[in-house]
Amino acid sequence: MKALVIHGPHDLRVDEVAEASPGPRQVAVRVRAGGICGSDLHYYHQGGFGTVRLREPMVLGHEVAGEVAEVGREVTSLRPGDRVAVSPSLPCGACRYCLAGAPNHCLDMRFYGSAMRFPHVQGAFREVLVCEEAQAVRVPDGVPLERAAFAEPLAVCLHAARQAGPLMGARVLVTGTGPIGALALLVARHAGAREVVCTDVSDAPLALARRLGADAALNTRSDPAALEPWCAEKGTFDAVFEASGSGAALAGALAAARPGATVVQLGLGGEVPLPVNVLVAKEITLRGTFRFHEEFRWAVEALASGRIDVAPLLTEVVPLADARRAFDLASDRSRAMKVQLAF
Predict the structure, then answer these.
(1) CATH architecture for the domain at 157-288
(2) How far is Cα 76 from Cα 62, in angstroms, rounded to an integer?
(3) Contact (Cβ atoms closer than 8 angstroms) between residue 285 and residue 263
(4) What pLDDT is recorded for position 50?
(5) Buried b vs exposed e over 204-225: b needs ≥16 C-beta within 10 Å?
(6) Comparing C-alpha atoms, which of 152, 275, 172, 159 is closest to residue 214?
(7) Per-residue pLDDT, 124
(8) Which residue stretches of the chain have pLDDT < 50?
(9) CB 335 within 8 A of CB 204
(10) pTM for the full model?
């Protein structure tokens, strides 16, 4: 079968790879839609990120949905023809963190399309993906599979919202309005936030943020003082989702957060300076957020019901054969929010 394989920076190929048969508790999913994530772009442009580097060719991709083609003999919840979104996360279920109810911190995690381990965990951008029964979550008929393929990044944001605490009536700041920031905006609105302000350094994602319901969308590159009105009297925001990974964005967020606020760090951008004096003086809680677990199923339910509408985020669906163009488009923030591949 065909799969999208990264061999090195900008060395992206549609290769023939072996097709596997499902084991007793596994299902074979005919992949139909796959979203290109920021980590996929890091492998495409730099061959990795931080200390994580490609050491062998790797199938990319972890945001996928498709149709069940075959089931193992012990599978009871799915049958051929079912439409599913596939969670890319497979914790071991036996380590100290899995047993403590924190499987997103599994010590033996297998996550599709990841070079963190060696041999690498091959990804989901392939014509047929064999996964565990528990990873495949049924999608109701009538729900486009392109929409279902948003389940993974939406689950990331749902998990982040749990770190922020109750958002009903809250005033929320989202810094960095790429796909994760845009989804964080939608999640905050879904959770009952009464005001959501977004910042970015590019006009195109800010324009989309306004369409998605942001009360204000501010370009902090063209107007570095844009957040000043929200910094008065020690700050305004009850919760912040920092989705850019930028030290400057984090510093601005801390200045605009009220005393006692919670700042959730979603974005990854390397080591950044931390204004500790502000953190201490305003008694701000700074929390990390890492992946998800049960939130994946919640994400599928929210997408299927239409309670969270991700349709405005989908820029284009590109055939697998034209994958290089898809990755180049996804890399251009002035033209694209989320680009998906069609299999």
Answers:
(1) 3-Layer(aba) Sandwich (3.40)
(2) 24
(3) yes
(4) 86
(5) ebbebbeebebebbbebeeeee
(6) 172
(7) 98
(8) none
(9) yes
(10) 0.96
